[in-house]
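Crash report, auto-generated. Payload:
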Amino acid sequence: NAGVMQNPRHLVRRRGQEARLRCSPMKGHSHVYWYRQLPEEGLKFMVYLQKENIIDESGMPKERFSAEFPKEGPSILRIQQVVRGDSAAYFCASSPEGAINYGYTFGSGTRLTVV
Amino acid sequence: AQTVTQSQPEMSVQEAETVTLSCTYDTSENNYYLFWYKQPPSRQMILVIRQEAYKQQNATENRFSVNFQKAAKSFSLKISDSQLGDTAMYFCAHSNGGTASKLTFGTGTRLQVTL
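Recovered output after restart:
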């Protein structure tokens, strides 16, 4: 049973380009969460999605960031017109219905570097 | 809003010794959950232990145990018989009760286990 799969592991983008980060939840998990970790900091919540629905996006920057979790396929975190401050590790986590409080399963993260 | 504070940026312990990592939190909720996550150099976020606020008994997982002081809003992690593989960043996290709940993380404690 594969864990939460994130790709790419590393992503380098020039300022102004778009970054697409993908997350495939564990089999049977219908909830996906995205977190961002800036250097030397803890993880900060960005968005929580269920299939085809955004449940909580209170941590998402208002501009340039969007997320989706389609009926088929992985969840995508999209960052348009990237800036140097977007450089961070982006983690995805998943959980089955109602299991958040058991501590959901994290992927290994995507490290985004904006040059 | 919930906050989680880890006041020890770095700790060091000798192999086979015991170390305690501190965490305090602030919440207005009565039902909530607390977690310790380990992040080794591989960057993977690994759940170490969880505690339900309504349970008075401290959680234990093998060499890992917590000292949960609800009134003081304190949630420390004790690692007994430290091993070299315990070297990692350790993050304390909080979530409210309910299925749509996000994790709030502290800034982490870097633990180095030495020979």
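Post-recovery validation: The mean pLDDT of chain B is 92.
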